[in-house]
Amino acid sequence: MKAFVMKEIGRVGLLDKPTPRPGPLDAIVRTAAALICTSDSHTVAGGIGPREDLTLGHEAVGTVHEVGSEVRDFRPGDRVLVGAITPDWGDAASQNGFPSQSGGPLGGFKFANSKDGVFAEYFHVNHADANLAKIPDGVSDEAAVYCADMLSTGFMGAEHGDIPMGGTVAVLAQGPVGLMATAGARLLGAGLVIGVESVPARQKLARAYGADEIVDFTKEDVVERVLELTGGQGVDTAIEALGADATFQTAVKVVKPGGTVSNVGYYGEGEFVRIPRVEWGVGMADKTIASGLCPGGRLRMERLLRMLETKRVDPTRMTTHRFSFDEMERAFEVADKKLEDVVKVLITF
Amino acid sequence: MKAFVMKEIGRVGLLDKPTPRPGPLDAIVRTAAALICTSDSHTVAGGIGPREDLTLGHEAVGTVHEVGSEVRDFRPGDRVLVGAITPDWGDAASQNGFPSQSGGPLGGFKFANSKDGVFAEYFHVNHADANLAKIPDGVSDEAAVYCADMLSTGFMGAEHGDIPMGGTVAVLAQGPVGLMATAGARLLGAGLVIGVESVPARQKLARAYGADEIVDFTKEDVVERVLELTGGQGVDTAIEALGADATFQTAVKVVKPGGTVSNVGYYGEGEFVRIPRVEWGVGMADKTIASGLCPGGRLRMERLLRMLETKRVDPTRMTTHRFSFDEMERAFEVADKKLEDVVKVLITF
Amino acid sequence: MKAFVMKEIGRVGLLDKPTPRPGPLDAIVRTAAALICTSDSHTVAGGIGPREDLTLGHEAVGTVHEVGSEVRDFRPGDRVLVGAITPDWGDAASQNGFPSQSGGPLGGFKFANSKDGVFAEYFHVNHADANLAKIPDGVSDEAAVYCADMLSTGFMGAEHGDIPMGGTVAVLAQGPVGLMATAGARLLGAGLVIGVESVPARQKLARAYGADEIVDFTKEDVVERVLELTGGQGVDTAIEALGADATFQTAVKVVKPGGTVSNVGYYGEGEFVRIPRVEWGVGMADKTIASGLCPGGRLRMERLLRMLETKRVDPTRMTTHRFSFDEMERAFEVADKKLEDVVKVLITF
Amino acid sequence: MKAFVMKEIGRVGLLDKPTPRPGPLDAIVRTAAALICTSDSHTVAGGIGPREDLTLGHEAVGTVHEVGSEVRDFRPGDRVLVGAITPDWGDAASQNGFPSQSGGPLGGFKFANSKDGVFAEYFHVNHADANLAKIPDGVSDEAAVYCADMLSTGFMGAEHGDIPMGGTVAVLAQGPVGLMATAGARLLGAGLVIGVESVPARQKLARAYGADEIVDFTKEDVVERVLELTGGQGVDTAIEALGADATFQTAVKVVKPGGTVSNVGYYGEGEFVRIPRVEWGVGMADKTIASGLCPGGRLRMERLLRMLETKRVDPTRMTTHRFSFDEMERAFEVADKKLEDVVKVLITF
User: Fold this and answer.
1) What are the residue boundaries of the Enoyl reductase (ER) domain, all occurrences included (chains A, B, C, D) (predicted)?
2) Domain range spanning residue B204?
């Protein structure tokens, strides 16, 4: 089968690989659609260290091709979604309520990390009964594939934010995860959602996904503006959706005492992420900093798919580019170099 | 001033009363609009015991008429909302996180209970800085007055339900509080909201406020139908919004193990409310039963008003009848006897 | 091998059975010590329906005898504890945070229910890596076996009770689970623990496990006395540890508005468990009713074993009787008929 | 009356001041005993900016001297404790569940900050009914005065730590607040408490208050040792009780994915408190950072006093020095310069 791999740090390309086979609890999925993620670029740039001929990609839907002997609920031909994170259920971290951390820190993140990813004609799913979800008839492949990471991660940003009903939320950065955090905050009862973003196309998407106000950090001081919009109080919840030290600091500054900074950003560089001491109330302002990795698993995926089925959100507005798997190299280039105002690139197989 | 009172159990009417005066922390509000609540009927029927010439009503907006010497944030002329529940902040129950229970069980419920209510030209508000909220310019009196009880109580039903994002919710009964519980469930991220109701006009409102499915208990078995709609699992959250033993039992039955029954119904009769033993998992199914009284206070009201300001919900669709305060006797009759498919009756002053 | 079985409703005895074999993820444990539980009596009495030659028992420790091909962390000879509840990790209920409900209501309760129990020379454990725990050197078999159900269930009663630090707790009934709820409340920061019990030997144990006050329901009115002990407020948390409608009602009555009734009792009869309407605040007193089934799993067991290792509690004071497995019929009779002031009966193999 | 004041930054001394008078909701307390806190030194050093003749001190007990006209529950002669933090109940932050932040960030911290403190023969208490607590007969002044800040703050460190029953906790630094965090972790069900401290006398106290293990950071690597003590997993909860950037970093490092860093330390210098990026899981390890200011209020104080009354903890072991108020200058010098292995200095009036 064909696979799109990271040959070494900084170099990608298509490669022939053997079709994977399932263990007793596993499944092999024939890929139908996939999305390219900024994490794929991080990985190629060396973010998780050197890898050789590792298949990239962790956002995909497809049809079940083969199942292991112990799989009960899925059969070849089933149209399925798999989360970007495929936990080891039963592991200590899973039993502790943190399945994304099963097998060690971020250990649920297996695709294109500790095993081959989904940018291939077929891919392997561990513990299929617990990590696959059937896609309802009314939900398209293109919509469903957004659940794997974009909805799950973005919504998590809102869920960890402890938003009171009618509360105020600032979402810092409106990339695809930030946009889904914006949608998530709106879906979880925020009374005022402030999207921070400078790119006009993303500002427009932010409004479409539920931002009531947009703050352009290139034109105004974010902290000042957020305080102004909240009567000088600061927001109940600030969601960091970029992964930059400066943005994280802003998040701590705009949140009120007793509020929550919910981090979804990935920090790729530097020794530290820094908390501004005074605005953190010298450690005493009852400001909480939450963080997390994209939740995975069948139940999570089923719940997200239900949100699509009942029309709570339409993630396909984020698809700016479409390519076939044959055009994968060009597709990756567009995503990697952020060409042509790209938001998300959809690959069909 | 004129006041609409409960003269004794079963008898109401207009009466002249002296205009109230504020203590040092209090305010007097000149009433602009009010809503009649089913609780007013319960009270007149003797639900809280005998009362003599007690002014009825607990849902109102108006303008500040006079403030006590220690009031800082409000001035005569301010357009204000007051919650149906006006807690004693600082009381043990408030410090414990349950201000509605300040001063004893349900003690925050003062209007038309432990003191005169709001169906009068003027009414008294204790601890004005903590219990009043300014109404934003873009929000009408008619919309704002729904926050006092209908939104606060209905939304509480959803908030206590611990709804997972994309989870399933059944709301049992679609009276005005049930409708706001339906809206609340939708606003808090439910992926599927099932409204149980038999009256066509209320079914229609339920759909407008966010119910994805309607179950008519006069035509089908509610438990069976809810299980069918949830793939045999039961719902994550069942909200009892009627206050009937049979409905409460249904709530326990339709909720899945690990799910939550959130009670907002007021139980007016009988010695017991009964939990069905087997469906409660013989006490071991991890089903939680939450309950509560309408949250009050300035912050709550400000947050609910923000939901109106940013167009999250339009409660005025529930106004089926409008009367002036002069027509109060007829207005009360319509509400009390549930004439003409009444949902909510608005009184203007 | 020899097994102690329920031959049919009302009849027990020893029987020869084949030694079980493990599936790929499972283990077979050679039993070293076991405890008889009141649930065993319920089962024999028909509480879970008819069974034929079902091996009884769900509280045991032993040494690993054989493991399946996929088991990673356990080897023959390891000294192990297994929880009474052995969840299917990865199941929907487990992913939802309620592993005890995996596979359906109370579905994690497999031993002596949906499969053979532990009163046998060998027993089978599903998903060994997730459901077994190694016993630390400093912890005796006799102490460890209490973790399987008594500590896990009793402590859960306290954990579900949402006890504020320095808060007040009433534990209704001081059988072995109630005693561990008493210990649990004390261990979780309660400032006042009131044990309700009439049997002198159990009152004495209750004091030893941390009850500050004892209320004898045969001598005084429990509700009155608890209110008196809490300055008229009621307790923050009431733990029902008996499983009787009347006791449940008392629990609702003694808890303050905003407080929690935590149920650990098993209700074996009647169509309903009844909530007293008025004392429940007519549905509006912010009183929460929590319930649950004994938590299982490796992490839970490891944490409980740590509590023994670091001397937080000594459950062996509850052992009133000791028998060898040969004497199982007599042992069961003592436990079943509650002879000789029995609290717990230990069986050694 | 005599008061011990900060004359200006760096200079303290006794001064005559008029005895304060109460507003309608307030009380004046005649001081009986007080404790000197490290915060007093911070304040004198300029930590909260310049002050002129500000009375120092925020930990005190005494007898009620005079009450305002609206005070209901207290009378002259009552023996009382007041929390270091005296919130404005009813304020937005209080209604939001964070009374310590009422009136602005850290706004509940009034004594020796926004008004005169308690190192005086008499001191003023705002909202007496909500901020005073009667001291039970069996509790000494010396024990009670520890509740004002030491128990409330230290226990908060444990409460914010979300410690699972039987979980593992590291408490970094064993000063008086750290010691009470150690006691708090033990009282809240930790299965293993690791105290980090190098001073022998404090190590000994740490053991007495419940530390199972002591790690001396001058002799071994804290991160390495904590991982070793937790089987390589890290702790569930790390409590920072010093207020140093390096210690905070250690806290993030020793906590497992999914665990909580609970901050009680006050950070007096530097622009930032720094999170180590990699050990924070690049923002994705589900590690939560909680923070807070000493909880105050009558209910909190009553619950802490109950812990003393029922002998849960004896804080008086921390009293290393005793002085009369006449000797206040020498007393302050001992505390300020940390002479003679001082832990806490008690002042009697």
Assistant:
1) 13-347
2) 161-291
Distance from the C52 Cα atom to the nearest Cα atom in chain D, whole angstroms: 38
Q: Please tell me the distance from the alpha carbon of residue D217 to that of residue D221, in angstroms, as a whole number.
A: 6
* Residue of C139, C22, C50, C131 lying closest to C84 (CA atoms): C131
Q: What is the arithmetic mean of pLDDT over C33-39?
A: 95
Q: Where residue B177 sits, what CATH number does that domain have?
A: 3.40.50.720
Q: Is the pLDDT of residue B211 over 90?
A: yes
ipTM summary value? 0.97
Rounded to 10 deg, the angle between the D245-254 and D222-229 helix axes is 30
Asked whether residue A253 falls in the same domain as residue A270, the answer is yes
* Chain C closest-CA separation from residue B317 CA (Å): 27
Among A165, A256, A307, the residue to mutate for chain B (most B Cβ within 10 A): A165
On whether both B174 and B77 belong to a single domain, the answer is: no
The domain boundary residue, chosen from A245, A273, A291: A291
Q: Do B268 and B315 have their domain in common?
A: no
Interface test with D, best of C163, C165, C168, C182 (most D CBs within 10 A): C165
pLDDT band at B312 (very low <50, low <70, confident <90, very high): very high
pLDDT level of residue D106 (50, 70, 90 thresholds): very high
Residues from chain C that touch A96, judged by Cβ atoms under 8 A, are 299
Q: Are C208 and C184 in contact (CB under 8 A)?
A: no
Pairwise CB contact (< 8 Å): B257 & C289? no
CA dihedral defined by D313, D314, D320, D321, rounded to 10 degrees?
A: 130
Q: Taking 90 as the threshold, does the pLDDT of residue D340 lie above it? A: no
Say which amino acid occupies A177.
V
Residue at which a domain ends, from A242, A260, A291: A291
List all chains that touch chain C, counting a touch as 3 or more CB pairs closer than 8 Å: A, B, D
Is there a contact between A267 and D277 if contact means CB atoms under 8 Å apart?
yes
Contact across the interface for B303 and A167, Cβ inside 8 Å: yes
Helix ranges restricted to H, C98-197: 128-131, 141-144, 150-159, 176-187
In a domain, B48, yes or no: yes
Instruction: Provide, as residue numbers in chain A, all residues whose Cβ is less than 8 Å from the Cβ of C24.
Output: 24, 70
Number of Cβ within a 10 Å radius of residue C288: 23
pLDDT in tens, A41-80: 999 999 889 999 999 999 999 999 999 999 999 999 999 9
Q: What is the structure's pLDDT at C129?
A: 98
In a domain, D156, yes or no: no
Which band of pLDDT confidence, cut at 50, 70 and 90, is reported for residue B162? very high
The verdict on residue B192 lying in a domain is yes
How many Cβ pairs closer than 8 A exist between chain C and D?
61
**Together in a domain, B304 and B318:** yes
The CATH code of the domain that includes B95 is 3.90.180.10
Domains held by chain D: number: 2
- The SS3 of residue A143 is helix
Q: Which chain B residue lies closest to C101 (C-alpha atoms)?
A: B257
Q: In this complex, which chains have at least 3 CB pairs below 8 Å with chain A? A: B, C, D
Whether the per-residue pLDDT at C47 is higher than 90: the answer is no
The shortest CB-CB distance from D283 to any of A101, A243, A274 is to A243
Residues B299 and B269 grouped into a single domain: no
Same domain for B283 and B316, yes or no, is no
Q: Find the CB nearest B167 among A166, A192, A303.
A: A303
- C8 and C145 fall within a common domain: yes
The 8-class DSSP code of residue A283 comes to G
Residue D321 has pLDDT above 90, yes or no: yes
Q: Identify the closest residue of chain B to C274 by CA–CA distance.
A: B274
Confidence of residue C223 (pLDDT cuts 50, 70, 90): very high
Please check whether residue B213 lies inside any domain of the structure: yes
Residues 6+ away with beta carbon under 8 Å from A280: A252, A287, D267, D273, D291
- Chain mean pLDDT for chain A: 97
* Cβ separation D286–A285 shorter than 8 A: no
Closest partner residue to D297 (CB to CB) among B70, B95, B298 is B95
Amino acid at C231: G
A60 token code pair: 């995909």
User: Are D184 and D325 part of one and the same domain?
Assistant: no
